[in-house]
Amino acid sequence: MSIHVEHVTKRFGTFTVLNDVNLQVESGELVALLGPSGCGKTTLLRILAGLERPDQGRIFLHGTEVTDQRITERRVGFVFQHYALFRHMTVADNVAFGLNVLPRAQRPSAVRIQEKVHELLRLVQLQAMADRYPSQLSGGQRQRVALARALAVEPRLLLLDEPFGALDAKVRKELRRWLRRLHDELHITGIIVTHDQEEALEVADRVVVMHQGNVEQIGTPDEVYENPATPFVYQFLGDVNVFHGRAIQERTIANLPPLPDVDSVLPAGAVDEREVTFVRPHDLELNRYRTNSEQFEATVRYILTAGSRVRVELVVLESEQTIEVELTKERYRDLVLREGEVVFVHPRHRQVFKIPQS
Amino acid sequence: MHLLLKQPSVLPGFGLTLGFALFYFSLIVLIPLSGLFVRTSTLSWEQFWDIVTNPRAMASYQLTFGASLVGALVNGIFGSIIAWVLVRYRFSGRSLVDALVDLPFALPTAVAGITLTAIYAPNGWIGRYLEPLGIKVAFTPLGVLIALTFIGLPFVVRTVQPVLQDLDKEVEEAAATLGANRWQTFRAVIVPELWPALLTGIAMAFARAVGEYGSVIFIAGNIPLISEITPLLIMTKLEQYDYSGATALGVVMLLVSFVLALAINLLQWWSSTRHMQQ
Predict the structure, then answer these.
(1) Residue of A82, A98, A134 with shortest CB distance to B179
(2) Residue to test with chain A: of B169, B177, B187, most A Cβ within 10 A
(3) Alpha carbons A35 and A32: distance in angstroms, whole number
(4) Nearest residue, CB atoms, B177 vs list A76, A86, A89
(5) Which of A213, B119, B164, B174 is most buried, most CB within 10 Å of its CB?
């Protein structure tokens, strides 16, 4: 089912949680709302579910306006970060809840409900746990029960609010792969809220990056990672080195110093601007010797070799700024780096954002 | 649970504190209570049985336990509603109402009794409007019921309130997203969570009412066989220097109270472990 969000604004007191948000989700898509805590992503999800009302704007589900529709009429499945299971009910009763509260005329027979519960428990791989209570399950199992419970009512839309946020890293990774497979199997439209960029990039068809109540960028995981539209998106998706500089009128290229305090040239007549240059740690190249004019010198301060790649922390000689460089193990072995050495740093790829003077 | 009395612990003083606790408990509770049994044992079994099954005593048990039970149940319903309102809604004067709930705890029971009598007497504020309707409150079993309801209210409110406060809002939201209406959510999600606390509150209100004396004697009128409670009967016997008779009734009250206390503890144990079977 498609979702259409039109100019939605929400305030809590004087604080604007969502500022004129527009969003279009196609049927069958799995979209991630990504952003730091407090960016409004959970509020947007709760508005879609009907748990919260927008102050302005309209929500359409499958072309029908639902802005004023009650939660119970929207047929939306919601999965909470802390599971929100009914702890006095067994796993099977939890899953059956949505079916048991249906009006008598629509309610399937007891036998049919039981069949359906078993089907769903098989889907979430918890058949053996049907008669247990939530307190007897692990966090990952509880969240799978919550998912089965949400799916029982055959929702047109599945909303997940940081579903794996309370789980440890390994289980989280397993569950998000499993969720992706489940989504491919069921083709249900889904929105997952997360502050974990890795999770968003791995699980979603498209990612909506949010910041302070605004949508910063919408795109496929590749698009938002490779071509961040704003400085915020660049910084939020992955590690990054930031260099501040100025764009100054009519300086010649020859005078342009290499990073770190980059100054670039503006066409004649333009106003001076501040600018920010972003370089990812793996886009910085280290050399023992000067090989081109774009290099700058830095002292190796700390080397971290644990993990699949080597992370090197350096201090730029000129500005004393700390930067981080990521090397492959092979490159690190070739270089034979030692702490305290001075090396040459060269940015292979950089992205510059102009910040208008205000 | 392991029945190990002493386990290695980083905190010293296990022996000392256990010893002190047992000593203190004996001094305050066990010795006075055993005195009750010792005193009763001066009676022969037939004498004891005659005293405790005397029609006047039987009528007093019926009133004491009956009115206490009904009062506790009434508190169960209205106490829960008060707790609900205090937890769920923000209104001006809320903290004042919250503080007033404790009043029956703090008020000298005699004061409560005199006040209730004044209000419900045939010429009192409320009594004068009930009188023409044929409802007599003061000096009847109904008056006893009102006094016992009054003193039991805080027990229900104060046991239900914290549980309501801790109730996870998300669980109700989850029920709503699954299609449950307010009533279904209340019945299937909220009540099962409240149930253990509510039972405990009712049991405590009941136990308190069974032992109540001060607030009841003023409003009850104390007519033998009609509006006389067991604690008053014990007082009457004491005033007649019938110590053995008084202690015999005391033993009956003690046994019932003990069973009640045990029941309360079992309820609390049940409510805390019900969903934790491993």
Answers:
(1) A98
(2) B177
(3) 10
(4) A76
(5) B174
Interface of A with B (CB under 8 A): 49-51, 71-72, 75-78, 80, 82, 84-89, 97-98, 100-102, 133-136, 146, 149-150, 152-153
Select from A236, A55, A51 the least CA-distant residue to A159: A51
Segments making up each domain of chain B, as ranges: 43-277
Answer yes or no: do A98 and B178 touch at CB < 8 A: yes
| Domain B43-277 grouped into CATH 3.30.2350.10 | no
Could you count the other beta carbons within 10 Å of the beta carbon of residue A4?
16
| B181 interaction partners in chain A (CB closer than 8 Å) | 72, 101
Instruction: Tell me the pLDDT of chain A (358 aa) as tens digits.
Output: 789 999 999 999 889 999 999 999 999 999 999 999 889 999 999 999 999 999 999 999 888 888 888 888 888 999 999 999 998 899 999 999 999 999 888 899 999 999 999 999 998 889 999 999 999 999 889 999 999 999 998 888 999 999 988 888 888 888 888 889 888 888 889 999 999 988 999 999 999 999 999 999 999 999 999 889 998 999 898 888 887 776 655 443 333 445 555 555 555 555 566 777 888 899 888 988 888 777 888 899 999 988 889 999 998 887 788 889 999 999 999 888 889 999 998 888 888 887 765 5
Output b/e per residue, A74-103; b: 16+ Cβ within 10 A: bbbbbbbbbbbbbbbbbbbbbbbbbbbbee
